[in-house]
Amino acid sequence: MPYPRIIIMRHGETEWNLAGRTQGHLNSPLTEKGRAQAEKLGKILNRELGTTDGYAQMVSPLGRTMETADYIKKHFPLDPTPSDLLKEIDLGKLSGLDRSEIKLAFPDHMAGKPDYDWYFGAPDGETMNDMRERATTWLESLGAPTIAVSHGQIGKVIRGIYLGLIDEQILRLKEPQGVIHVLDNGVETIWT
Predict the structure, then answer these.
(1) Spacing of C-alpha 108 from chain mean position
(2) Which label site among 44, 62, 157, 186 has the fewest CB atoms less than 10 Å from its CB?
C-alpha cells in the first residue's frame, strides 16, 4: 500500500536515556541536550518546510514527546494531535530498569540479543508483531502527508514498514535524536 509523505522524528534526549534506564510507556524529562535537540528539529522543519500547510500533525501522548513538540514550536508552527498509536514500545516488566537490573532479573530474556533487540517481547511487553500491527494501523490511518513526533523503537518499525523491510532489517535501523526522517515515495532521507 502506498503511504503519503511522512516526516517523523524521535524526542530529544531524556534524563533516563542519559542514565541508561528504560522508559517504554514511562517518562522522564528532557535533558538540556534534549531540549537543544528539540529546538534544532524546529529549526530544521522551518528551513525545509517553513509551514505546516497540507500536513497532518501528530505526536505520541507521552511526556517526552509532548515536551519535544513544545520546544519545536519555538521555531516551527507545530500543533500536533496526540495519537496513542505513536507511543513507544510497552516494555512491560522491564520498564524503568537499567540494563544491569534487567540482566539480573531477566537473564534468559537478555541472553544473546544484540543492540536493543531485547526491547521486543519483554515480559508482559509488546512483541515485534504487536509493534508491526500498531505501526501498520497508524500508517493506514494517514490521509495526508504527516509530521510526527514519536520514539525510537516505534519510529524504526514505522520506517521499516514504509521501506518494506523484514524484522531483522528493522531491528538494525538506528534511531538517532536531533534528526528528521523523511519517508517519501518508498525512500528515506534524513534532514540534519
Answers:
(1) 27
(2) 186
